[in-house]
Specification:
Elements: E1 2-5, H1 11-20, H2 37-42, H3 44-49, E2 54-59, E3 61-69, H4 72-90, H5 100-109, H6 116-119, E4 124-130, H7 139-153, E5 158-164, H8 168-173, E6 180-184, E7 188-194
Parallel strand pairs: 4-5
Antiparallel strand pairs: 1-2, 2-3, 3-4, 5-7, 6-7
Length: 195
C-alpha cells in the first residue's frame, strides 16, 4: 500500500468509501437510496476547498482517506457560500425527515457548526475513513500523522474531530494519537488535541 496526496480522479473512490464506512464505521450502502448523499455532506467540500489537506491510501484501488481543514470557521463560511447552495437546489428540505436520505437532506439545508468554545484552542478539524482491508496495518496512523504535521505547519494550535458515539473502534484509535475527549452526547463524541 502507498499513501499519497488526493488527485481529482480519486473523488469517486472517496465518495464510495464515505458510504461504505458511513454507518458508525460500517457499510451504509443499504441505508441510502442516493449513494452520493453521504459524500456530499461529509467529503465533497474538502475535495473542493482544501484538497491540499487530503490524502489517500492506495493498493491498486483507493482504500481510505483523510480530509482536513486548517480553519474550521473559514471552511464553514465557504461551504455556506459555495457548497450548500448547489446541493440545496438539487435536494429539497424535508419537512419531517424520516429516512436516512431525508436526514442528510436536512443537514444540507441546516448544517451544523463547530462549537465556538472549541475553536479557540482547536480551530482545525479532520475526517478519516478506511475500508476494513486497510485497517489495523498502520495506515490510519500514517495518514493522521501526515495531516497533523500539515495542519501544524499552517500555524494552527489544535485540531478536533467528531465520532459517531456508536463507533467504539474509533474511540479507541484516536487517544493513541494524543486525542482526548472534550464533549459527548448520545450521538457524537468530540475529541481534540494540540498541534
Amino acid at each position: 500500500m502507498s499513501i499519497r496526496k488526493f488527485r481529482l480522479d480519486d473523488e469517486y473512490a472517496v465518495y464510495d468509501i464515505c458510504l461504505r464506512t458511513g454507518e458508525a464505521g460500517a457499510d451504509a450502502s443499504d441505508l441510502y437510496e442516493d449513494p452520493r448523499l453521504l459524500g456530499h455532506v461529509y467529503a465533497g467540500a474538502y475535495l473542493r476547498f482544501t484538497p491540499e489537506f487530503a490524502s489517500v491510501v492506495e493498493e491498486g484501488a483507493v482504500l481510505g482517506y483523510v480530509l482536513g481543514a486548517p480553519d474550521t470557521r473559514e471552511f464553514e463560511r465557504r461551504c455556506e457560500q459555495e457548497w450548500w447552495p448547489q446541493l440545496r437546489r438539487r435536494y429539497a428540505d424535508p419537512v419531517a425527515p424520516a429516512t436516512p436520505d431525508e436526514r442528510l437532506m436536512q443537514r444540507i439545508h441546516h448544517p451544523g457548526h463547530a462549537r465556538e468554545d472549541l475553536l479557540g484552542q482547536y480551530p482545525s478539524h479532520l475526517h478519516i475513513d478506511l475500508l476494513p482491508q486497510a485497517q489495523g496495518k498502520g495506515y490510519g496512523r500514517s495518514l493522521m500523522e501526515a495531516l497533523l504535521e500539515e495542519l501544524a505547519a499552517t500555524g494552527s494550535p489544535g485540531v478536533h474531530l467528531g465520532i459517531d458515539a456508536r463507533n467504539a473502534g474509533a474511540q479507541q484509535f484516536y487517544p493513541k494519537l494524543g486525542f482526548g475527549e472534550v464533549y459527548r452526547d448520545e450521538h457524537v463524541v468530540l475529541m481534540a488535541r494540540d498541534l
